[in-house]
Amino acid sequence: MQESHPNHFPRQPDESSSPEMANPAYSIHYEDDALLAVNKLAPLPVQRDANGTPGLQDLMLAERASSLLKNTKTAHGTLKENHNSSHPFLEAVHRIDQRATGLVLFAKTPEALRRLSECFRNQHILKIYLACVERKPDSSSGSLSHWLVPQRYGNKVQVFSSLEDIPQQKRRSAKLATLAYELAGASDRYWFLRIELHTGRRHQIRAQLAAQGWPIKGDLKYGSHRSVPSGRILLHSWIMEFPHPIDGHLLRLTAPLPEDEPLYRVLQGILRNREDAGNG
């Protein structure tokens, strides 16, 4: 679901394109003059990582710069020199984990970036994730609150139940992480959680669920027993709701689950049945 405004138009898919022609790394979910919402589908970083691996932002900038250059022509059909248009502004407002999927917001102007960043910083945004875990939660719903401390090695975070449990020398880097969850359904061997993220800490959902003994499917780093053939972890940035950076109207975006993931097809059926029951 997405709420639009007379001056803001959702990006519509090209009906002439086939699934084989679609970019497997991402799909454009919503676009207007200020922002771009992308459904990240592949296991790649949002921005270039420390090893220099190109990210989603690099792919999109290169594609848009090429498109702008091709479409900037004179009346005689020859390319027109326009360096500003061939270097569009596009900056990720936030990140999701490299092997997670789902919504990522990009600002198309510096002012939109400032306002959206402020929105994230002040937690004026609803963030809903879906996760597939390998063990049934102890209760069908609840809240989790932990302190997270980055590890020096291994690109992980340590999880502590209270600030007092953290060694004194590590407390300065500790950050409080909170979320709420509810059980959305289950398959024969896995359970699906709907998660409302209250804070936006690095590896937060992965680490907090693993600390409860509910590792995310495919997340070997945090205790999953088996990887996923696609290279993903089954964590999806599903819904975001926030004030639009131009006029403040409420924008609600929902990113479809990747259709090529068998367990996500099971989850999609569960969500559809719940929606039908709610409308009945």
Structural description of this entry:
This protein starts with 25 loop residues before the first strand and ends with a helix. It has helices spanning 56-71, 110-121, 204-211, 262-279; strands spanning 26-31, 35-40, 91-92, 101-107, 126-133, 141-150, 157-160, 175-186, 191-197, 235-243, 250-254. With 280 residues, it is α+β, with helices and mostly antiparallel strands. The chain has a single domain (24-279), classed as Pseudouridine synthase. Strands 1, 2, 3, 4, 5, 6, 7, 8, 9, 10 and 11 form an eleven-stranded mixed beta sheet that branches. The model is unreliable at 1-22 and 72-85 (pLDDT under 50). Helix content is 19%, strand content 27%.
What is the fold-level CATH name, i.e. the topology?
A: Pseudouridine synthase
Taken in chain order, the helices and strands follow as EEHEEHEEEEEHEEH
Q: Total strand count, please?
A: 11
Envelope shape? globular
Q: How much β-strand is present in the residues?
A: 25-35%
Helical content stands at 10-25%
Distance between the termini: 19 Å
pLDDT < 50 runs, ≥5 residues: 1-22, 72-85
Task: Please give the domain count.
Answer: 1
Mean pLDDT: 86
Number of helices: 4
- The CATH class, by name, is Alpha Beta
> What is the CATH architecture term?
2-Layer Sandwich
Work out the radius of gyration: 20 Å
Tell me about the biggest sheet?
A: 11 strands, mixed
CATH superfamily: Pseudouridine synthase
Structural class call reads alpha+beta
